[in-house]
Amino acid sequence: MALKDFRGKTFVAFTDISGFKGMMKKEEAGRALQDFFAIGYDVLNENPNVSGVFISDCGILYHSKENVSELQRLQEILKVIQEINKKMANLNYILTTSIAYGDFEYQDKIELTNMTKNALQGNAYLDAFIDNEYTTPKLKAGECRIIENDEIVEELDALSNNRFALKKKNKHYYFYWMIKENQTIEEYEARIKAVESNYSEKSKQLNDDKYEALKDVIKNPRTVNE
Q1: Which of 61, 95, 60 is nearest to 175 (CA)?
Q2: Is the bond preceding residue 137 a cis peptide, omega within 30 degrees?
Q3: How many domains does the chain have?
Q4: Would you say residue 216 lies in a domain?
Q5: Bigger pLDDT: 89 or 200?
Q6: Is residue 213 part of a domain?
Q7: CA-to-CA distance for 14 and 37, rounded, in angstroms?
Q8: Phi and psi (nearest 5°) for 42?
Q9: Which candidate, 111, 166, 160, 124, places its Cα nearest to that of 144?
């Protein structure tokens, strides 16, 4: 079934598979894409308010439900990102994800027997793509962050102090999707500190060793005292 056309302000996430070029050299890319598409399909099927377009090793996800508060939109797209990341990590893949808020348009335009044409437009999509691919500091494997936006400060602050492990750094809010939900602020802070410390340590390793080490941080986000 084709996606419905959408036009309006919403949250848009750009996510891709870390280390995909290396997988292509090792002929592992085909399996990775099959797993990515299958997981994306399953998660979105269970979360109908979020829609997605998957192209090669990238996914563009957006909240497509009208007449829903921005807080609910943010909660629901974070839930989808968290579930996709966890399921991918269980299969030994890790993603990088950028989320932006703003104008977005999806239009299912022309379909022929040998061609399909779709339009993705809007500053939210472009902002998320640029942040994922080009913005400094560069996203590390497994990281997810939301671009700060004056229109959604209240929603971000509300979730930072409640259900989700969010931490503000400069012009981003980093989402620590690997940390269990519904903990106290103190528990969140301890676990975020541990993940950051482990990330810093593992990032000093080289090439494939670093990639595998970061996977371990994601799968086992230990607290400082553990």
Answers
A1: 95
A2: yes
A3: 1
A4: no
A5: 89
A6: no
A7: 14
A8: -65, -45
A9: 166
Extract the tokens encoding 85. Answer: 């990341």
Residue 172's domain comprises 6-182
- 118 SS3 class: strand
CA proximity to 73, closest of 5, 142, 156, 130? 156
pLDDT tens, 155-198? 998 887 666 788 899 999 999 998 877 677 777 778 788 888 87
CATH of the domain at 45: 3.30.70.1230
- The answer to whether residue 191 is domain-embedded is no
Q: Strand ranges (DSSP E) for 56-206? A: 58-63, 95-112, 115-121, 144-147, 166-169, 172-175
**Within 10 Å of residue 197's Cβ, how many Cβ atoms?**
13
Q: Which amino acid is at 171?
A: K
* 155 within domain boundaries: yes
- Residue 49 amino acid letter: N
pLDDT at 123 over 80: yes
Q: Write the CA distances from 105 to 3, 17, 61, 75, integer angstroms.
A: 12, 24, 12, 21
Question: d(Cα 20, Cα 95) in Å, to the nearest integer?
Answer: 10
